[in-house]
Structures are given as structure tokens and as C-alpha cells.
Design brief:
Blueprint lengths: L1 H19 L2 E8 L2 E3 L2 E5 L4 E7 L5 E5 L4 E5 L4 E6 L5 E7 L7 E7 L7
Length: 115
């Protein structure tokens, strides 16, 4: 039993340290569109996407590039953790409104002086 408590404690410690270093970026889903449609983030860093669904209908955040999907319930805020990302462009879309709810995460190199 003590081994399980120790293992769980270590897991929680690792997760909390990971979360503490994740920079937060906010997206808004409104009228089946993501705002902003493009966000620029530092490459090789852990990230926290906070998505507020202001629509009256659910949407599903979906990204093959980011290997993430999550239902965004109407009137609620959802969190998706990503990264660290290599430099590049990572597309995402709303599965229920794929022609309008589209966006891109652009991961760029940053100098240590920029941090």
C-alpha cells in the first residue's frame, strides 16, 4: 500500500511541476470561429491552451498536428496541454464546424533574452 502512495505522490509532484512551467494562451470560440485564429508560441516549451466556448452549441477541438481532441461544452472554459513543440505550424479545427472553426499554433524559436 505504501508503494502505491509513494508512486501516486511522485506522479502528482511531476504533474504539478509540469503544469507550473506551462505558459497559458487563451482562445475564444465564438460564432463557430476561433479568436485569435493564429497564435504564436515559443518552441520547445510546455503550453496550456485555455479555450472559452461562447457559442450555444458544443464544439470539438481537434488537431492531428497536435495529437489532441477535446469536446468544448457551450458556455464553459476548457484546458488543453500541449508541447513542447518543435518550430513549425500546427493546425487545429472544430470538428463540428470544420469550414469555419479553424486555427493555427505557430511555434517559433526564441532567444534566451526574450524569455
Amino acid at each position: 500500500m505504501n508503494k502505491w502512495i509513494l508512486a501516486l505522490s511522485m506522479l502528482l509532484l511531476c504533474m504539478s511541476s509540469w503544469l507550473a512551467y506551462a505558459k497559458e494562451y487563451k482562445l475564444i470560440l465564438k460564432d463557430h470561429l476561433f479568436y485569435p485564429a493564429e497564435i504564436t508560441v515559443p518552441a520547445n516549451k510546455k503550453l496550456r491552451l485555455v479555450i472559452e466556448n461562447q457559442d450555444d452549441t458544443p464544439e470539438e477541438f481537434d488537431s492531428f498536428d497536435l495529437n489532441r481532441e477535446k469536446v468544448l461544452y457551450p458556455g464553459r472554459t476548457s484546458v488543453i496541454y500541449i508541447g513542447p513543440l518543435s518550430p513549425g505550424r500546427y493546425d487545429f479545427f472544430g470538428e463540428f464546424s470544420p469550414n469555419t472553426a479553424r486555427g493555427t499554433v505557430v511555434a517559433t524559436e526564441v532567444n534566451d533574452a526574450d524569455n
